[in-house]
Amino acid sequence: MAEHSLKPATPAPHRGAGPAATAVRSGAKGAGPVPDAARPTNGQRLARSIRRHRYAWAMVAPVVIVMVGIIGYPLVNGLWLSLTNANERNVAKTIGVNEIPATYELIGFENFSDVLTSGVFWDKLLWTLVWTIGCVGAHYLIGLALAVLLNRRIRGRGIYRVLLIMPWAVPPFVSAFAWRFLYNGDGGLFNAVLTSVGLPALDWLSEPGLARLSVMLVNIWIGIPFMMVAMLGALQSIPGELYEAAEMDGTSPWQRFRHVTLPGVRTVSMTVLLLGTVWTFNQFPIIFLVSGGGPGDSTEILVTYAYRLAFEGIRNYSVASTWGALILLILTVYAVIYRRVLRNNGEDVW
């Protein structure tokens, strides 16, 4: 046999081989990173996205412009004021025909240092956390329980759904004034019921501990419908075959709830708990309208206290802005940690 017939055949060079083809092949899976020169920049990706989805961008552009105007500008202005000593005395004002220019100065992070080293901020933060955790926990547990109940075939289910959604349909200020009337020490419904059964009347909004419990009950009553509707939608998305298979396996109702219902509503639960936490943390109208922050400042949460600094007494805009910036920072850190925990648990995150 001839020697040349035993040598392995040398593969023919691939058509198109060269530096460009090498760069393309290096981007294939397992072939190494794509050279930086071949990667599109952020600007190129944005321009490509605008060209590809120009109709969608045109539709959302008005909303984006309005959001930048009503959220972006106040946010930037608030952050700027938090770095100054602006207050009612040194901001620009017009008195008659005289225009007095602003005289406040940039003082760096002095406001942040003063607020964080004061006991007031930490006292308000502790109560705000208690308020948020207590209200959101009650919202979720009661809302889920009602959703499980209304997901069953019971007589009058539609009527119950409408009645339970009513607190959400009523404007918050109307609900707040209605509850304030119920808590009234002279002629309020709750004290009338207590005295009718021989129990002493209570100072619902005059005793600090009872006032805190009272405002939490109002917020829980208002927030339950949202959780109930969200959980009811999640429950109805669970395939009925899962429950039928679990019943054929002889599982108990608790086991079906634990191993079928809870995993089925987990994704929706994570989203609504995040939203509920942010909303409750910044729930201004309930505190302001029901208790007015009192007695004293016992029911003041962070946002209501920042409001009083900015708009009552000697208005201290810089310190109020500092409180606002700290609230934003707390919620941002919470959202980042929450998102990371979800991702580590294998959840789809936004």
Automatic annotation (TrEMBL):
One GO cellular component, as annotated: plasma membrane
Keyword Cytoplasm listed: no
Regions that span the bilayer: 55-76, 125-150, 162-182, 217-238, 317-337
Positions of the ABC transmembrane type-1 domain: 125-338
SUPFAM superfamilies the UniProt entry points to: MetI-like
Domain of life: Bacteria
Keyword Cell membrane found: yes
Keywords, sorted A to Z: Cell membrane, Membrane, Transmembrane, Transmembrane helix, Transport
Mode of membrane association: Multi-pass membrane protein
Disordered: region residues: 1-43
Primary site of residence: membrane
Signal sequence, renumbered to the chain: none
Compartments reported by the entry: Cell membrane
GO BP annotations, alphabetical order: transmembrane transport
Pfam families linked: BPD_transp_1
Annotated family: Belongs to the binding-protein-dependent transport system permease family.
Protein name, per record: Arabinogalactan oligomer/maltooligosaccharide transport system permease protein
Organism of derivation: Allostreptomyces psammosilenae
Upper classification of the organism: Bacteria, Bacillati, Actinomycetota, Actinomycetes, Kitasatosporales
